[in-house]
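Entry 14: structure prediction run for Mitochondrial Cmc1. Input pasted below.
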Amino acid sequence: MPSEVRAKLEKLIHGQIQVPAEDIDDNVDATALGEILSDTYQHTGSSKCEIADRLLKTIQAQECPGDSESKPNTTIRSFAAFLERRMNRLKDIFSRIDRDEDRRITLSDVYEYLDQHKLIYDPEKVQLVYNVIDKDHDGSVTYEDFVHQLLLVPSYGRKPNERFFYRAYDFFVEDLGISADSDVVMSTGLSNGMGYFYAGGIAGVISRTCTAPFDRVKVYLIANSTRHSPLTFREAIASIYSSGNPPGLRAFFTGNGLNTIKVLPESAVKFGGFEFAKKMLAEIEGVDDPANLSRIATFFAGGIGGMVSQFCVYPIDTLKFRVQCAAQSGGTRGANVLFTVLRNMIKEGGIRSFYRGLYVGVLGIFPFAAMDLGIFSALKAAYVRSEAKRLRISETDVQMGNLAVLSMGAVSGSVGASVVYPVNLIRTRIQTQGTAAHPFHYKNFVDCYHQSLKREGWRGLFRGLGPNLAKVAPSVSISYLVYEKSKNLMNLA
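Run finished. Output tokens:
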């Protein structure tokens, strides 16, 4: 029976689109399709059935766009329709590259096409794809070879842009195990995994630098609680500008050097840890794609990423806060503030002074990171499903606009920051206790909470929330935008 199914599929693949009526509703057998794929590409980097399943999911997604639940099995009819659409798409792509219309394309033709349309691409990846489809290795690809080698590649997008080469590259390298020299190579999963850390680090540095002045005002408002009448936002700005060390606009970037050093690993670990946790939880839940992870598991993965990142950078975080507070006392100026604060902290409490409020900070970041990353992921998934349904395309082909990413980041970051703000305020006061701007001392988290409540009432637990949200909304938005763009450039899912 499988041999009969394979024969039918091979006829379809080789151009016989018409299928007898009695066979049109038969299901496509993954084993038979896997055998055809294995013979076509003569590489088995992944299981033949796994590759076949991916191709069948591509067909199902196109048959039922935007509907991730209860998709039907792929029938011969659906498979034939897919092949016809794919043939038309490949014909269009080939004709766009083959400008001299000789039904042959060279590698230079491909580069010229990409450059002409100002598309971003990796020359090495494009060359690898080209080497695979150049079956005869004679430096040119015929239309027949082009179709033969790309007809069964899982979905690579609806537009003839750079994604065509990236999806084909992923298929040839990760699924089939083909290297640039057409040798079998190890999976590039590890390098892709590290890519999430790289993208997260880049996103963190850019977003935090853009919003450094808001962070400066927030810390100043939280720490400066010695006055009977709390500082207003405008008074805080004026005070920082006039009495900062150094004064002027540069005062709003005090501690930003430390901030950058801190946020690079923090953001890298947060995003990378989030993606890693999602993959681990996907295996536990038995889900093939982390994008289909349950909402609870996604929120939990976000919390894990946040806790690990907070633990890694906590000493730098404490030092940054104390440098910002010490800068308001005058005296020591410039870079000397950092070394003076560092010496004083070591003298006062040794290494332990860098970890004041650690438990509060690490536990407090869990709900924030869970809501931030979880809400963003939920909004992104809902947007992708909605767009896929509206445009009648596969969810993998939906491209998110910059405004959509910025809006989702602002919402997720603001909700998370508002909910856990009192915990972060108490943590910051524990970290900055005994400084010129915040001379109070606390025994522990509960003692800090009671003293703050006694001095300022419950409103005091939300002091600085305004500038914090003014910082968080653009910071998180920029962070997610840069992260998503960086993932696209690195060809990460």
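Notes: DSSP finds 19 helices and two strands in the chain. Will compare against the previous run tomorrow.
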